[in-house]
Amino acid sequence: MMILVTGAAGQIGTDLTTTLREKFGNQNVVAMGRKTPMPKDIAEGGPCVMGDVTDIEGYQKIVDDYQIDTVYHLAAILSATGESNPQLCYDVNLNGLYNVLEIAKDYGQRLFCPSSIAVFGPGTPLENTPQETVLKPTTMYGVTKVAGELLCDYYFHKYGVDVRGIRYPGLISWKTRPTGGTTDYAVEIYYEAVLNNRYECFVGADTKLPMMYMPDAIKGTLDLMDAPLENLKHHSDFNFAGMSFSAQELADCISARMPGFECTFKPDSRQNIADSWPDSIDDSAANEEWGWKPSYDLEKMSDDMLENLKRKLG
């Protein structure tokens, strides 16, 4: 097996590349990026290549050079960045995905192409959002993710491409700081607690969103890819849940572990995006079809985040 991870320098990509190399061997997992330099452990731990998924000829050459048979396609422009540059968001998230699917069709590859809670919007039930529901996002990122889910399912039914995906909630990790996402506050607050013992949050205190700790996200991703195809009724659009909490609940949880920590709230333009997303997610389809179950809650995650960040940041 030869695996390619696009977007390998990103928040999910760094963790996923490391885990895949541990599972399948360092030389069997190729980390692909475009502009962002690879973290040292990724760059030195196995093959790396620079490329652009919107350049189908260049992407095909990478597939040929490394004889890739499985792709984890994480290259994307995220929600907040997508609103400042919607044309780029469309190009990378949809034209890039189309290229990846075309190559997968021609080469018989297996694909993981994640979606996001950004597919939801006005008209979607905010509490315990069901698997099948209204999808009317208010951001270009969300629009590309809805279209991406449909495109992936089309390639499965039309061409038999084994493509799978989950709707990631906000993801929290101590290894890599995120950039350009609406849920970035849920990571930044831990960093700032350790570095400065204070944080100014860009969403309101009562803002409640679905979140997940990165170890759960990586485990769920691999579990879905390992699931027998015949067990899956859904393919590219699984609801995927870990925990839900408000920004104030997160701040209080950190305060209980960091005496003197202060968090203030100053909502900016990202508040409108957050308000369009659900509070909690019904992921029963993932549980029934491939046995998904999270391991971390807010308390357990906070203990692990702070322990690792204190060690990392000195």
Automatic annotation (TrEMBL):
What InterPro entries does the record tag this protein with? Answer: Epimerase_deHydtase (IPR001509), NAD(P)-bd_dom_sf (IPR036291), NAD(P)_epim/dehydratase (IPR051225)
- From the UniProt record, which GO molecular function terms apply? L-threonine 3-dehydrogenase activity
Residue ranges of every copy of the NAD-dependent epimerase/dehydratase domain listed in the record: 3-230
User: What's an example GO BP annotation here?
Assistant: L-threonine catabolic process
Pfam families noted in UniProt? Epimerase
Q: Which family does it belong to?
A: Belongs to the NAD(P)-dependent epimerase/dehydratase family.
Name this protein carries in UniProt: NAD dependent epimerase/dehydratase family protein
Naturally occurring in which organism (per UniProt) = uncultured marine group II/III euryarchaeote KM3_13_C08
The upper taxonomy is: Archaea, Methanobacteriati, Methanobacteriota, environmental samples
